[in-house]
Write a structure and sequence with these properties.
- The protein starts with a helix and ends in a 10-residue tail after the last helix.
- Helix 5 packs antiparallel against helix 6.
- The chain has 173 residues and is mostly helical.
- It contains six helices and no strands.
- 28% of the residues are buried.
Amino acid sequence: MRKFVYSLVFGSGLLLASSTLHAQSQDEIKQAQQALKDKGFDPGPVDGVDGPQTHAALRDYQKKQNLTPDGRLGPQTLDTLGVKHGSAGTNMKAAGTNIRHSYTNGGKDIGEGGKQLGSNVKHGEVVAGAKDFGKDVGEGAAKIGVGTGHAAKNAAKGVKNAVVPNKGRDTTK
């Protein structure tokens, strides 16, 4: 019984410590809310409370940036908002996420155009099918282009952070 109690207390302590380590400060949340507001996303009041409006604004922002739309203030999101500069690894990971999401979404649009083309041709509507296919290919390629642009920016930040480490620190000691 004693081992069980000790294990329970130890496990609770670990859980509390891990949730505390991952929590954002109220100031960091305020900065993120202001950055979201400045970029045209409505997080509600800039009050430092990580509530439902902030989560919804974050998801919308993350979708637009081709990041994982989880509504959380993770390192990639904080970096793209300009609240906290990420490490080289974080920036490179963000670039990979940008590519993955944009190619997935763009590819779905292109695939949908192919399905529509097949259906239209089957029903003798070749011209309409070609128009629909061209439209979906254009939309898909645009999503891929936007995501690639975001990825290039994040990769450039990653390279910069890798080449210029310890900004502001005295490294002569």
